[in-house]
Amino acid sequence: MKASDLFVQCLEEEGIEYIFGVPGEENADFVMSLNQSGKIRFILTRHEQGAAFMAEVYGRLTGHTAGCLGTLGPGATNLLTGVGNGNMDLAPMLVLAGQGSSKRLHKESHQIMDAVSMFRPVTKWAETIRHPDNIPEMVRKAVRLARSEKPGAVFLELCEDIATLESDARPLSVRRYPRPMPEPESLEQACAMIRKAKRPVIIAGNGVIRMNASDSLRRLAELTGIGVISTFMAKGCVDVDADYCLYTIGLGRKDLVACAVDAADLVITLGYDLVEYHPHLWNPAADKSILHLDSTPAEIDACYHPELELIGDIGHSLDAIAGRLSEGSLPRFDLKQQQAVRRDMTADLEAHKADDTEGFIRPQKALWDVRQVLPADGLLLSDVGAHKMWIARHYHCHEPNTCLVPNGFCSMGFALPGAIAASLIHPGRQVLAICGDGGFMMNVQEMETARRYDCNLTVMVWEDKEYGLIAWKQTDHFGDHTPLSFGNPDWMKLAESFGWQGHSVENSRDLQQTLITALNEEGPSLVVIPIDYRENLILSARLGEIACPI
């Protein structure tokens, strides 16, 4: 069969459901073959970067692999930022690009560049398909690598002349393998460390979400009462309403939650990736006793040197520990510091719920209202900017994987295309993206994609008419900031021109009802609010003054 047909059949065998992207001349044979597939849905996007963000969100929400597609040259370079974002946030992704004829790769030629070398720093594996018979092996390897811990992006390019050749090869069947289990001796050592501790605390990371270990974590926390702090990317791993939920950690300055870590004599990390929140921020003296539970060994770092590493399936490890602890009398921990942290943080989160400001809306009030109107399974996607810091601190979840925050690569422009993917994957759930006006305009063209596919989603834009996070950081550090202001479109006309519903909210009292209206409208809706970023420096000052009681 034709190589491009074989490629598509291999992707079908892998269970690929979606490919997001932009066709071009050099991937035309592949796209025509893809058009004949009855199993893979191709989503035409308005920019390759948006396609990569969509593939990332598919991977994060499902744990499976989707594709993002570009042609050679500028099509491939346009994919790069979104691929870097997904790879650093450990989303399984299959990155596909066309390439010019293999007869001209060795010389100066139209749009030819070494895309494989470009993608290698931001993928787990990048390679050119050099012969049609290699396609089954390479697709099988690519998808397996993308999904294996720690997951990430893989890149394959197909030359236009190779795509037209004939092959007698056939797709390889998919073989799954179980995750390794920890050794019984290591489990006993872990239980001994927990029994010995007086003030243990848990830091839960991205791996808890990726490996569906939330139920096991909740059972252990309910059994022992040990407090659970989540990273930004582990929001919802425990229910925000649970007494043992200590909210999130990850801001650059010391927050109330850090007091629980300061007081701990044992830090149990679960699926924690150092890129989520560097250990020098929570263990600066490198003196914490650390128990590392993950599917892979710990990254080497002077401030993260675990006494014990329990390597294997996280959920199985947690269940095994809970079983062993319950066999005897449960340890009696001193959790007064953790209880104080939860009490003080809860009061902080509720402080502005009754705000009635006019002309500006405080971030705390906006997020309080969002939490009130989004159901437990509603999906919130954060873009990157000052609003991300507020979402990290003030928006908390009932269910795992219901708040997606870009955290490693931190690319602006993520949330709008990400919300499109979320709405396609979960058409029955409410989807809300929160963007700054800077980040939203970076992929504003995908408003047309959302309308074309009749996506039920809402985007809330926090308008401050400048790059607010940079202004915040520069002012914190230098006492002033460089020129960062810009103009914006007429938001309601913009929404109308793309066929979206549009809402502008000036006063705090009107926000909650407007959000309810927007979330229940058919098709995409835009809500724009004037955000009161004077609160940024107020928060910075407060965090800088936090002192934990001894």
Automatic annotation (TrEMBL):
InterPro entries xrefs: DHS-like_NAD/FAD-binding_dom, THDP-binding, Thiamin_PyroP_enz_cen_dom, Thiamin_PyroP_enz_TPP-bd_dom, TPP-bd_CS, TPP_enz, TPP_enzyme_TPP-bd
Enzyme type, top EC level: transferase
Keywords: Thiamine pyrophosphate, Transferase
SUPFAM superfamilies registered for this protein in UniProt: DHS-like NAD/FAD-binding domain (SSF52467), Thiamin diphosphate-binding fold (THDP-binding) (SSF52518)
Thiamine pyrophosphate enzyme TPP-binding domain residues: 383-529
One annotated GO molecular function: acetolactate synthase activity
Domain of life: Bacteria
Keyword rRNA processing belongs to the record: no
Keyword Transferase carried by entry: yes
A Pfam family of this chain: TPP_enzyme_N
Residues of the Thiamine pyrophosphate enzyme central domain: 187-321
Gene3D superfamilies the record matches: 3.40.50.970, TPP-binding domain (3.40.50.1220)
Residue ranges annotated for the Thiamine pyrophosphate enzyme N-terminal TPP-binding domain, each copy included: 1-118
Enzyme Commission number, as recorded: 2.2.1.6
Family, per entry: Belongs to the TPP enzyme family.
Name recorded for this polypeptide: Acetolactate synthase-1/2/3 large subunit
